[in-house]
Design brief:
alpha/beta, Rossmann fold, 5-stranded parallel sheet, 15 helices, 5 strands, about 10% strand, binds zinc ion
């Protein structure tokens, strides 16, 4: 994946810092979901660990670059919530800190993603590292909501804000990078509600999209054990699955309303879900969409995610049933 044009100035900014030996010990990449923050964190990690970086980033040839490419670099760590968990636990941060205080010769990079997943205990544990950083260690925190981050963490990071590109810029890049037509790229971006990463997924074979559409079709037809499906959703990529469900419902709602976004070709993704939602009216689809958002906000609470998801799927099944009978 090439660096999107809207991240180029960020890359240049960090390159100049690295060249001048002024790389901060902690960088916070802050911006909305889906514009490539994780990709930028990988680019920055490669730059810092590379033996002979160039302006376009790491050289891609040295031993450090090769280790990064193989996913086996011993000084590159990504810290994220464990499977099925919403928070980054204090033990994870302690493990990270003990790793960072080892005496190594070169650099070490730790990526914490998303930084909102730090709870008060893990944030406190991290503060010590932020206050007394080990030389050569770079911490990269990836976040989208400034208000959800502890002020003590924010004040100790070099905060680098990122904004979404215009739809035109995003469509332009998607169509060039994936060699698809502009209308196709625009359609995917609209379906993904402006999330560029999701639009990429839709355009690249859309395994995730098809899977969610199939699950929803099976749930609607009552062919499946909903608690088993809910457990599977909660266990892996829950956020992405809910984003895809909400994107599919938005698309169906547009179709029900007879409205298409600019550039939308209207040929759809051929999912069984579109046939299913064809019999549903706009109010029902809008209600289902709201249920997804409600489920997402409830997931921030302490109730078990699989129960929240099961309730969402049950509601979906109930709402689909009349459409099937008609
Ligand atoms: Zn290199």
């Amino acid at each position: 994946m090439s660096i999107p044009p809207w991240l180029e100035s960020s890359c240049q900014h960090f390159y100049r810092m690295a060249l001048a030996g002024r790389m901060p010990h902690a960088v916070m990449l802050l911006g909305p979901d889906g514009l490539g923050k994780r990709g930028l964190s990988r680019w920055l990690s490669r730059l810092v660990l590379c033996d002979s970086p160039a302006e376009l980033g790491a050289c891609g040839q040295c031993r450090n670059c090769q280790l990064q490419d193989a996913g086996t670099h011993p000084d590159y760590f990504v810290c994220e919530p464990a499977a099925g968990k919403k928070q980054i636990g204090v033990d994870q941060i302690r493990e990270l800190i003990s790793g960072s205080s080892l005496t190594g010769s070169g650099h070490r990079v730790f990526v914490i993603v998303p930084a909102e997943a730090l709870n008060p205990n893990s944030a406190n544990a991290l503060l010590k590292t932020l206050e007394e950083p080990t030389p050569g260690t770079l911490l990269i925190l990836v976040a989208q909501m400034r208000s959800a981050l502890p002020a003590t963490i924010l004040s100790r990071c070099h905060v680098h804000p990122l904004t979404r590109p215009s739809a035109d810029q995003a469509v332009d890049w998607l169509s060039k990078d994936l060699q698809v037509s502009r209308p196709e790229a625009a359609s995917a971006l609209a379906t993904a509600e402006g999330r560029i990463d999701l639009a990429r997924e839709i355009l690249q074979g859309a395994e995730g999209l098809d899977q969610v559409a199939q699950d929803l079709a099976r749930a609607a037809e009552g062919q499946v054990d909903l608690s088993e499906m809910a457990a599977r959703w909660a266990d892996e990529s829950l956020d992405a699955r809910l984003s895809i469900m909400s994107a599919l419902l938005t698309r169906s709602a547009w179709m029900a309303a007879g409205v298409r976004s600019a550039g939308e070709t209207g040929d759809g993704n051929g999912s069984g879900l579109e046939r299913l939602t064809a019999g549903m009216d706009l109010a029902t689809l809008t209600d289902c969409y709201r249920q997804v958002n409600r489920c997402r906000s409830r997931l921030k609470g302490s109730l078990r995610p699989e129960l929240q998801v099961e309730e969402l799927l049950l509601n979906w099944q109930d709402r689909c049933h009349p459409a099937l009978v008609e």
